[in-house]
Amino acid sequence: MPDQNIATLAHKRRPIPGTSESEERLLAMVTALTGELAITRERLDTLERLVEGAGILARSDIESFEASPEQADQRRGIQHRIIAKVFRPLRDSAERDVEKARKKAHKETQEND
User: Fold this and answer.
1) Which residues of 60-97 are buried (b: 16+ CB within 10 A; e: fewer)?
2) Can you say how many angstroms the Cα of residue 76 is from the centroid of all Cα atoms in its chain?
3) 31 band by pLDDT with thresholds 50, 70 and 90
4) Is the pLDDT of residue 58 over 50?
């Protein structure tokens, strides 16, 4: 499925020589976000064309739509998942840093005993 290939680019990319870890994380985040946006825009365009072509709705109906509270909650869930995916490189890096600090503290404690 093409959507999966675009969405996983941030995880399959090779490091660029001369970039720092921070730059690599930022590039991974931008790549993930760009992939998500490209997929979403393509699907939205497809739906708008199909709906308008079938005479179901005009684009102005789509633009003036107001979500119900339940629909708004569902949208917030989607937003949270996308945000978690985009910021995954930072979270993973922070988790690695915490693990390194724990190992270092444990090693220092053992040396002092």
Assistant:
1) eeeeeeeeeeeeeeeeeeeeeeeeebbebbeeeeeeee
2) 14
3) confident
4) yes
